[in-house]
Amino acid sequence: MSGSPLPALDPALLAELETTARRRCVDPSQVIAQALRAWLRPDGLCESVFQNAPLTGLMEGVYRANTTLTDLRRHGDFGLGTFNDLDGEMVLLDGDFFQLRADGKAYQPPPETHTPFATVTQFTPFVRETIPGPLDHAKLMEVLAQLLPSENSLYALRIDGDFDHVRVRSVPPQPEGRPLVEVAREQPVFDREQVKGTLAGFWYPHFLEGVNVPGYHLHFLADDRTWGGHLLACGAREVTIAIQHVPRLTMELPITLDFMTGRFRSDLGAEIAEAER
Q: Do 144 and 157 have their domain in common?
């Protein structure tokens, strides 16, 4: 009833909550918030990853869609993707969008900006670990693999840290129809040394190849929010890794002429690996 005080939690339930939160290395308030979202939002926002298109279309050169950043934001506060015409890399972090363009700089795009491909979720990690370095790229990937309970599930990943070096790429705007693997061969690459920042992204199981990038897909954004891109390699002095297991994937299929009339191949594994790595 309106104006009624909220009931106190049962002591036994409160103890169980504190035990679970401690085991998962999160604050009890995060557990309560996640449970409330699941109850109040029957669409399962807090435990679903949303995609506005499959990766296959992007690989084949479908670079325009009608989804706006406002539309994406309704599905979460964390994610990555790109923009119409392939105009840079996207990071959605703490509810704010950043456009990492081909000059290597980060911009904040207006909410009416469109995207042909993006992946977002409401980020609520179940584990948070601080890992001391030094960590080269291979070692960081090894640590991530040890923290994932299974390679057959979907995870959102956030890695905050002090990086010795970061190598990223972005791409300039492209005409529709040019395959992504061709674009990636001409991508501008940027290197930074001694930078603090965040890697944001996802792990997708390999059996979802074509739906999204199989394995790790990570974008970097510097703490000062001025620089970043699609991660190619990095080394770190120390990182804090937060992982969210997401048991549900929701995907829309674009209603555009190029997508509806496209002839998409299914054997894109080698091209995805070249374009994304």
A: yes
Tell me which residue of 55, 64, 53 sits closest to 173, measured CA to CA. Answer: 64
Per-residue pLDDT at 30 exceeds 80: no
Query: Do 126 and 59 belong together in one domain?
Result: yes
- Whether 236 and 197 have beta carbons less than 8 Å apart is answered as no
Arithmetic mean of pLDDT, 186-200: 94
Angstrom distance (rounded) from CA 259 to CA 257 = 6
pTM to 2 decimal places: 0.81
The answer to whether residues 209 and 215 touch, using CB atoms and an 8 Å cutoff, is: no
- Which own/partner contact pairs does 177-185 have at CB distance under 8 Å and 24+ positions apart? 177/61, 177/258, 178/61, 179/59, 179/60, 179/61, 179/271, 180/58, 180/59, 180/60, 180/61, 180/86, 180/271, 180/275, 181/59, 181/271, 181/274, 181/275, 183/86, 183/275, 184/274, 184/275, 184/276, 185/274
- Confidence class for position 116, pLDDT limits 50, 70, 90: very high
**Of 80, 95, 127, the residue nearest 241 (C-alpha):** 127
Is the bond into 134 cis (omega within 30 degrees of 0)?
A: yes
Within 8 A by CB and 6+ apart from 149, the residues are: 245
Q: Domain residues for 176?
A: 45-276
Query: Cα–Cα distance between 180 and 268 in angstroms, integer?
Result: 11
Helix, strand or coil, per DSSP, at residue 94: coil
Domains: count for the chain: 2
In this structure, is residue 4 part of a structural domain? Answer: no
Instruction: Say whether 104 sits in a helix, a strand or coil.
Output: coil
Amino acid letter at 213? V
β-pairing, 78-82 vs 89-93, is antiparallel
